[in-house]
Amino acid sequence: MNIKKSARRFAPLVIGASLLAGPAMAQDLTIATSVPSLGFPFFVHMENELNAEAEKLGDIEVLNYDGQNSSPKQTGDMEAAIIRGVDGVVISPLDSVAMAPAVRQVVEAGIPVVTIDRRVDGVEGILSHVGADNVKGGEAQGELIMKLFPDGARIINLQGQPGASPAIDRNKGLHNVLDKVSDKYEFVAEQTANFAREEGASVTEGILGGLDTPPDVIVAANDDMALGAMQVAQERGIDAAIIGFDALPEALAAIRAGTLTATIEQMPGGQSRKAMDTIVAYLRDGTEPEKLVLLTPIAITKDNLDKAERLGEID
User: How far apart are CA 74 and CA 42, in angstroms?
Assistant: First the structure.
């Protein structure tokens, strides 16, 4: 029997396990990580940072799971992690509601869970959530629009994947700011493009085809959609401000080149390091973490590119 797992599940054994095994007992750990889809560069970077932090901490085996943009696949991965008997799970759930039963199953198996970037709704016992304050990120987009267009603007809003907490929160933040001045700032179209570049392009194409007057702004809930919209705007010769979210290297390069107006930096590397540190400290030292850790996103434009976490990745 694995003593440290028994100690987590049955409180009376904790003291005895500590006396028997001593401090070295929890040095070798197996931690499962799960992201919604490695088809998105954002999650590739996040997984890489999780792995790098685990290597830095030492004596950790990391099992990386790719949700492949499918809640059933991500659910199956969590079941596999339980069967494997991992010591902890760091997960960015594809859907905040659909993934709740799977995360609850992990918690009930006595395995500590830290959620990262995306929340899970209605599950008791999650160790901690580490993410960006996506409402504030959306508000940063809205505030930038007001700064760029003080006299008002017509806006296309490309929303993220329905059910994903970042999509919900970013949209909320954007409306928090602009709904207060709706007499000046008009959403001429709002439609999901599911965080995907191809859909960002096709949805933008469809919206522009139905407008008599081009928009002043295209705001997107991530950079992939913004880059898709940027391509369409360039092909149509439309001079609109385009604002993304995530500060991907490709987006930063486009900002430097002047083809993308701005993005929102949400420090995915910082989130990843904090999440891995949190679960390892709990497993090795019993350190109780903060239940909610939110980093504050900032708008990145040509004027403050040096503030971007991944600036060093562009030529």
Answer: 17
Does residue 19 register a pLDDT over 80?
A: no
Share of the chain above pLDDT 70, in %: 91
Q: Which residues of 276-304 are buried (b: 16+ CB within 10 A; e: fewer)?
A: bbbbbebbbeeeebeeebbbebbbbbeee
Q: What is the pTM of this model?
A: 0.82
Whether residue 27 is predicted with pLDDT greater than 70 in this model: the reply is no
For the chain, give the mean pLDDT: 91
Decide: residue 11, CB within 10 A, 0-12 exposed, 13-18 middle, 19+ buried: exposed
